[in-house]
From TrEMBL:
The lineage of its organism: Bacteria, Pseudomonadati, Pseudomonadota, Betaproteobacteria, Burkholderiales. Pathway: Carbohydrate degradation; glycolysis; D-glyceraldehyde 3-phosphate and glycerone phosphate from D-glucose: step 2/4; Carbohydrate biosynthesis; gluconeogenesis. Its EC number is 5.3.1.9. It is found in: Cytoplasm. This is Glucose-6-phosphate isomerase.
Length: 545
């Protein structure tokens, strides 16, 4: 039976009525009216603290959103995911990234297979391998320890490990430099290879399918580069694979003994916890990689057991839904006030936009509301000096997630004080704004006409929503919890919209057309099979190539 449409649900309609009342609400007044607002609208879970009080909503809004979550079946769908039901209904797959971070003693059997035992068998191999490389026991073909690790992968086989290795920089092994090659653009791999020594470099070819065109081309280029400089027999010391596709790995020439497997129930964008996290385990060591998994597991336990009203990922999802649906916000900015989280917005782009950038429901009916907003952002304070102008005074309202660690991993205390001051000041500024009268007061002393000329330019509308997520330190456990928080937020929103958050058919068309055009760019005769624009572009490129 198909799910009733979102807009026909009683709780959605109650929210619609409520949203009309809420249209004129000013957060300044909401704070003034309730001295307990911060206490009421903040919570802690899995080592993270979320302040959601600077949103344009009140207790009643939250009640209605919680009712919507219940009516849409967030709890049942969550339980179905954890239980290994095949909730990815267009690919007939279970969705079990949560099993990747479950402790060894957990139990989960899916299709007669002990999933937890499989996961821990691979983790044991990751532990042995990463210990060997890090200790210098695993040597390159001329007997030297590995100094450089190159992960060749794209999308989920790149963004997670790359983001996490950067985020955990203070925990990194001093001898191992991590490199990430993803783009089919030869400038990417060329820039990486020119600095590398084939005697001390380890390549990880990371691809769930082991058919992704970019990754296969980069892997072949790396292989060629290597065998031009080293005997072919040395390949097994320098090339390992991470994949679900053993046959394709073998065909590429990597011994399955050097392959770290995972499973079709791990989506690419949810795979950093699997063997796709191998670069992270190499970089920080297996102990810290285990802490990373444990941090995510702590968030899983919270998501699984906390009531909706005190459930951090559910609240984050519901508030995002409110902002998208009833405040009409077309995008969300992620503002990590931590330089080491520089790649976190890019990571979330894939997580949220590939998951929920859908226009039909699980049953294939058109959705009747907007779905995933655009996700973007840069670390603070850099963004403040670039696009925050638009966030403060532009015509669109863009909700912001501020993310900060209370303690830094460096000794430069005054830098950290300045960083946090900026983070908190921005959320205050977005909430409060600056009224025309406040501007007038500031400008006292100038001629009256000049004051009035400047007032509209210097006024800040304020009333712009934000969340603030704090952690004590950015470390493997808090990073794990943070990623899992957003994974589950994405899940919750997918349930509200009733989309399949675990497929990505939208990436296929471009891949197919690119294959065709690639052949046309190289071949004869001149093709004219496309529209005039595409034909014209191909012709220009053929003349240049
Ligand atoms: O790991 P792979 O099979 O190489 O896939 C890499 C990426 O490419 C695909 O096109 C999907 O859009 C991503 O979800 C996936 O993470």
């Amino acid at each position: 039976m198909s799910e009733p449409s979102l807009t026909s649900s009683a709780s959605f309609q109650a929210l619609e009525t409520h949203a009309i009342e809420a249209e004129d609400w000013q957060m300044r007044s909401l704070f003034a009216a309730d001295p307990q607002r911060f206490e009421r609208m903040s919570l802690e879970a899995a080592g993270l603290f979320l302040d959601y009080s600077k949103n344009r909503l009140d207790g009643r809004t939250l009640e209605l959103l919680a009712a919507l979550a219940r009516e849409r079946g967030v709890e049942q769908r969550r339980d179905a995911m954890f239980a290994g039901e095949k909730i990815n209904n267009t690919e007939h797959r279970a969705v079990l990234h949560t099993a990747l971070r479950a402790p060894r003693e957990a139990k989960l059997v899916v299709d007669g297979q002990d999933v937890i035992a499989d996961v821990h068998a691979v983790l044991d191999r990751i532990k042995a391998f990463t210990n060997a490389v890090r200790s210098g026991e695993w040597l390159g073909h001329t007997g030297k320890p590995i100094t450089d690790v190159v992960n060749i992968g794209i999308g989920g086989s790149d963004l997670g490990p790359k983001m996490a290795c950067l985020a955990l920089r203070p925990f990194a092994h001093p001898r191992l430099a991590m490199h990430f090659v993803s783009n089919v653009d030869g400038h990417d791999i060329e820039a990486a290879l020119e600095r590398l020594d084939p005697e001390t470099t380890l390549f990880i070819v990371a691809s769930k399918t082991f058919t992704t065109a970019e990754t296969m081309m980069n892997a072949q280029t790396a292989r060629r580069w290597f065998v031009e400089r080293a005997p072919e027999s040395a390949l097994p010391r320098h090339f390992v694979a991470v994949s679900t596709n053993t046959e394709a790995v073998k065909d590429f020439g990597i011994d399955p003994a050097n392959m770290f497997p995972f499973w079709d129930w791990v989506g690419g964008r949810y795979s950093v916890w699997s063997a796709i996290g191998l670069p992270v385990a190499l970089c920080v060591g297996f102990g810290y990689f285990s802490d990373f998994l444990a941090g995510a597991h702590a968030m899983d336990e919270h998501f699984r057991s906390a009531p909706i009203e005190q459930n951090m990922p559910v609240l984050l999802g519901l508030i995002g839904f409110w902002n998208r649906q009833f405040l009409g916000c077309p995008s969300v900015t992620i503002a990590p006030y931590h330089q080491d989280l520089a790649r976190f917005p890019a990571y979330l782009q894939q997580l949220e936009m590939e998951s929920n950038g859908k226009r039909v429901t699980r049953d294939g009916a058109p959705v009747d509301t907007p779905t995933c907003p655009a996700i973007w952002g840069e670390p603070g304070t850099n963004g403040q000096h670039a696009y925050f102008q638009m966030l403060h005074q532009g015509t669109d309202v863009t909700p912001i997630d501020f993310i900060a660690a209370l303690s830094p991993s460096h000794e430069l205390r005054h830098h950290h004080t300045a960083l946090l001051a900026n983070c908190f000041a921005q959320s205050e500024a977005f909430m409060k704004g600056k009224t025309p009268d406040e501007v007038r007061r500031d400008l006292q002393g100038l001629p009256l006409a000049e004051i009035e000329r400047l007032v509209p330019h210097k006024t800040f509308p304020g009333n712009r929503p934000s969340n603030t997520i704090l952690m004590e330190y950015l470390n493997p456990a808090s990073l794990g919890a943070l990623i899992a928080l957003y994974e589950h937020k994405t899940f919750v929103q997918g349930v509200l919209w009733d989309v399949n958050s675990f497929d990505q058919w939208g990436v296929e068309l471009g891949k197919v057309l690119a294959k065709k055009i690639e052949a046309e760019l190289a071949g004869e005769p001149q093709p004219a099979l496309h529209d005039s624009s595409t034909n014209g572009l191909i012709a220009r490129a053929r003349a240049a190539i």
